[in-house]
């Protein structure tokens, strides 16, 4: 018996990712500026720090997915210390720039490229499609943590289903 | 120009979902029994309650995806009060039963079925594939919240990348 194959337009995968990024943006916006850069629970990173990880992964990840040129893990901007936004506005501007990057690079990924094995950030061997899923899952995971921070601060988070 | 189409074996989508469910199972296991049913932050649900939502969505969701017979939202077991496990063991047993359900029903979903529009839990109109993504995203989101609970309790959560 032939295995069932599911076909998804690449465009729908991009839309799904951007939908998640739009929601994460609203979570960043929902934080009071001081708490964004300071509030944490149980020794975890503050939400600005978590958002910087997501930002770097999207920014350098889309280039790696499209061109196979990967920034090594330890040179990601938030890890190397190259990117340290001081304000919510600065963080959101960087976020919006990466939204454009995704739209620019995404159409360069061919149907074959999605199934090629690549070494993500010079470290994790997986297909481009698996990398895509990991990036989206990781954003979902950390944004869920931001929801708890907001609730702990007495702030109603944006609805999860609205993407 | 023809739009890029990405082809994914249905089996890989199931494996992805089961990988996430396996990780959520380890998060349930990581909670001390009393905290599983009581600990919360900012007025949120305890992790057992969140896990019950995920359990019901998977159990009744896979039937709806495969057969188009959807349990209405308000009849989901954790909402209607039909399912109230008292112990971690009981919760994990229900979890493992649903793992089997997924393996049983999944192969019945045809390539065409993934693209059919359906009314998820009698309420949300989307394709079967979109429902799949929503279920996995929702699990990721709530499990991320469980990570914060564990950290707040001083417990190291299982690694996110291990699925």
Q: Topology, pairings included?
A:
Two copies of one chain form a homodimer.
Chain A: E1 5-9, H1 10-30, H2 33-36, H3 47-67, H4 77-80, H5 88-105, E2 117-120, E3 124-127, H6 128-152
Antiparallel strand pairs in A: 2-3
Helix pairs in contact in A: 1-5, 1-6, 3-5, 3-6
Task: Identify the notable features of this structure and list them briefly.
globular, 163 residues, two-stranded antiparallel ribbon, homodimer, mainly alpha, Four Helix Bundle (Hemerythrin (Met), subunit A), 8% strand
What does this structure look like?
Two copies of one chain form a homodimer. By secondary structure, chain A is mainly α. Chain A has a single domain (10-152), classed as Four Helix Bundle (Hemerythrin (Met), subunit A), CATH 1.20.120.450. Helices cover 57% and strands 8% of the residues of chain A. Chain A contains six helices and three strands; from the N terminus they run βαααααββα. Chain A has a two-stranded antiparallel ribbon with strand order 2-3. In chain A, strand 2 and strand 3 (124-127) form a beta hairpin. In chain A, helix 1 packs antiparallel against helix 5, helix 3 (47-67) packs parallel to helix 5 and helix 3 (47-67) packs antiparallel against helix 6. The radius of gyration of chain A is 16 Å and the shape is globular.
Rg from alpha-carbon coordinates of chain A? 16 Å
- CATH homologous superfamily placement of chain A: dinb family like domain
Overall helicity of chain A: 55-70%
CATH class of chain A: Mainly Alpha
Put simply, the count of helices of chain A is 6
Spatial strand arrangement across the major sheet of chain A? 2-3
Which spans of chain A have pLDDT < 50 for at least 5 consecutive residues?
A: none
